Amino acid sequence: MKKRYLFKIAGIEFTTYRLIMTVFFSAVTIWGVNNYLYKEKAFEDSAETTGIVTYLQNSKGVRVSLYSYIRYDYQVDGQKFEGSQKSEEGLNPIIGDCIKITYSITDPIVSKINFSAGVVKCE
Prior knowledge:
By secondary structure, the protein is of the alpha+beta class. The protein is built from one helix and eight strands; from the N terminus they run ββαββββββ. Strands 3, 4, 5, 6, 7 and 8 form a six-stranded antiparallel sheet that branches. Strands 1-2 form a two-stranded antiparallel sheet. The mean pLDDT is about 85.
């Protein structure tokens, strides 16, 4: 009788496909957790600036559908950065509007939209 699996651990027979998928999903999970923890740690030391909405996914800039994807530009110490985030209820900007951005002082690439401030006056 031919063996149909590579090895057996605790009664689970690991085929090549199952082994590859287990390693892949474990790596994706670890990457996601590390990414989340890095962002949380980066925001411990943060500041605010104003950003300009440059792109709205699934819209023409006239009216944004609920929970759209917002891309924005902002500057920190003269250096230009680009960020993007899924919108939350209550924020319906159009392209060119200014929004408050919270960014990490240690790594300015890490940023998020301050939804409670809403659309603000451009400075």
